[in-house]
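ok here's the first one, seq then struct tokens
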Amino acid sequence: MTKQQSKINALKQELDFKSNQLQDLHQQVENNTTSLTDTTSSIEQSATSLKEIEEGLIELIRKREEDQQVLNEADQAYYNVRNQLSEKESELRHKVKEKEQVEHLLAAIKDKLNELKLQLAGTKERLNVEFRIQLEDILDQARTSETSLEDLQEKADRMKKRLENLGEVNPTAIEAFTEMKKRYEFIVEQKNDLVNAKDSLLKTIEEVEATANQKFLETFNNVKEHFIRVFKTLFTEDDHCDLVLENPENLAETGIDVIARPKGKRPTSLTQLSGGERTLTATALLFAIYLIKPAPFCILDEVDAPLDDANVGKFTNMIRQFSDNSQFIIVTHNKMTMSTVDVIYGVTMQEPGVSKLVSVDFRNLQQNQN
């Protein structure tokens, strides 16, 4: 029973809730109906306003088209007026330019007129001063000369040019001529002195060249004789050598051919000789030049390096012969050369980086042996 009562109460409550909900819905329907009525009325008003606006817009568009047409017509009229104005400005500029040209022409005519007036006044004055003639007296006189005006004008121009070439009259011309004459005579005298000096200098040059050529030939012949003698000393008497001038006619620029032909060989150049033979030939030429004017000291740096023992002996014998007049300092590593010298100086390094000079004087040994 209680359960049924509870169910009835629940149904009543639900009925009350539904009733309240129904009332809210009826109220909402009434409100929506009112709102719909208002909205419908507003839509009708809006439609009426929209129609009025459309009509106003159509009127404005039509008016705009009319205004645009008026504006286009005004633009066309503006451009027409502007073109007309440009044409007028162009015509005005042409007129101004023509006016300036006319003014320049008028100014030139005025200048020419003034120039002619000045020439006329000058001619009138010249006729009066130089020829005692009044221009007014001869204006009405007839021409008595048969020479044409062109010939007279040409003759006048020719005389005028001659006068212009003569230049203005110089009152100091005589003094200037005298001064220039003195200057000319001085320059001529200087020229003659220079010519004489040139001739004297050329003569001196010829004498110097002749003396130089003579000295050159004498020295060359002496060197040639010494070269042949020393060469035969270093080689044998049967070996041939010579010094030949390439261009004997021009001693200032001539070259010298060195000819060396050891016995049994026919070399065409010194390069075909052996190293020792070339060294001996060069040594012979060196001492041939040296004998012309012996120096007190002569240094030879490893000249004997390419020589064999036989040639080293010849070399040392020659050095011994020439040592009477000169002192020879020979840099060598050859033991045979060292054995023939008077004093040996050796450089040794007893400590790293410290050099020491050691000398051996064979002259003291030779004296002690004696």
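and now the second one, same deal
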Amino acid sequence: MEQTRRSLLKSGVGVATLGSLSGCLSGLQTADTDGYAAFFALWDFAEQIGGDEMEFQNPVEAGSMGHGWSPDGDLTRDIAGSQAFVYLDTPEWTWAQDIATDLERDHPDVTVIDALDGLGPQLIRFDTDALPEPDHGHEYPPENVVFAEFDIIDLRSEEQLGYWHTDHWHGGIPDVEVGGQVPVGIVLRDETDRVVPLDESSSYQIFARVATGESSDPVTIRSDGASVEFHGESTGTTDVVFEIYHDSELVYETIDDPARVTVVAERDDDGAGAFHDPHAWVDPVIAQEMVETISDGFADADPDNAEIYAENADAYNSRLQSVHEQLEVLSETADRDVAVFAGHDSFAYVERRYDLTLHTPVGISPDAAESFQDISRTIEVVNTHDIETVLYDPFEAPDPDNDLPEMVEILFEQTAVTDAKPLSPASGTTEEWNERGWGFIEQMEEMNIPSLQAAFGAE
């Protein structure tokens, strides 16, 4: 079987410590830092574990969240010149997956650590409904169709694989086996949320092509206008562009971010092709397991300092355990059953762990805009439960340190809400929080827990 990154993980290598064969970390560094982490929370975990022995850099600038962020052209080179890369092997961070693949292939001296390793049974499956039926009997002029946002569906299981948003993918196409095929479709809607019919007898069809315009090897692409099939011909990777036609004229294509298709000798059904909620780190119990995974990765790569990494991880996990205990008390003393979080759905793991209910107007994407129906449902929840304090994600405001998201302003205008409290999923940081020295735990203890207490009446 081809030794892909995920097959290495699945075969028992707890973390993909691809640099462990080269021995101690010393002498390998060519970059200005010992390692990189894909976003703020992972960076803080790595910094706490590395202590005085390893220094990490977070490439995502202050004021930005990790989701939807894209690196510049030099980041792969910079990481390849460092000693370690900590990331989540999930399509929400496709850029990090791509870098991990490149490191595995071209830079085996860099230690690659997937903090999600071993957490599969604890991950929350992305909720998907049955594939919606097209709304026939309507006209769909191109100016009324929302081409910039559509879901991509695995037609074998009707599972949502991800979605296209404006100029980039969240999620993507699962691996294709040699000799196998993966049929995918999209759910395209108009401005009134009706599902646009896609088939050879309708005015709209979906096709795909290889991004380079060259041979489609290692895949053959076939389409009947309603769906696209990727047939595995030989192992390898290629990029493809989805195309939407109206009356035989190309009206939209995903050229800004071609989707990567990988053909493997044997497909790993437990890998990132399964679309899960990626926000596992917000659960302080799961975060402790992530910390252990990172610590084990450091120890495998640098056994001389293994004891230091283990001690640092234990000390940090004691602090995470304290956060867990505080949230347990909050759950036990809450007066409310429901709170409103005017942000993307990033706290499902906290809801599950502590039996809390956070109504969010949109799904897990931080880029999704609230529809009229989303706003109406949220107003109804506020009114039904007599909610006066709502929560919001600072990173969904124009200025995370000073502004409120538009959704909060709407609730102030349309309901009896009188207060709004910040709730951060810790995928990013701000200049102000950096000045205060806030890491993941400080965001939880100084901001998130007090905000949740206010929203659930547990003060």
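notes on #2: Residues 153 and 159 are 6 Å apart (CA to CA). The radius of gyration is 23 Å.
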